[in-house]
């Protein structure tokens, strides 16, 4: 399976929302086409943590 590369804009959105009080559902709505697994993996690679 081939994965879509993360755009700079998607990464910015993730950096902004993942460590905030935003719910996972809210984050996924801002990142259409990204699954929970993809968001979680990218966040871990960026060393982002949830509050």
Task: Describe the protein's architecture and organization.
This protein is mainly α and 51 residues long. The protein has one domain. It is 53% helix and 0% strand. The chain is globular and about 30 Å long. It starts with 7 loop residues before the first helix and ends in a 6-residue tail after the last helix. The relative contact order is 0.22.
Task: Briefly summarize what is shown.
The chain is mainly alpha-helical and 51 residues long. It has helices at 8-17, 24-30, 36-45.
End-to-end CA span: 32 Å
**CA-based gyration radius:** 10 Å
Could you tell me the number of beta strands?
A: 0
Whole-number mean pLDDT? 95
The helix/strand series, from N terminus to C terminus, equals HHH
Estimate the helix proportion, in percent.
40-55%
Q: What about the largest sheet?
A: none
User: What amount of the residues lies in strands?
Assistant: under 5%
Poorly predicted spans: none
Broad structural category: mainly alpha
Q: In the residues, how many domains can be counted?
A: 1
Helix count from the secondary structure assignment: 3
Tell me, briefly, the overall form. globular
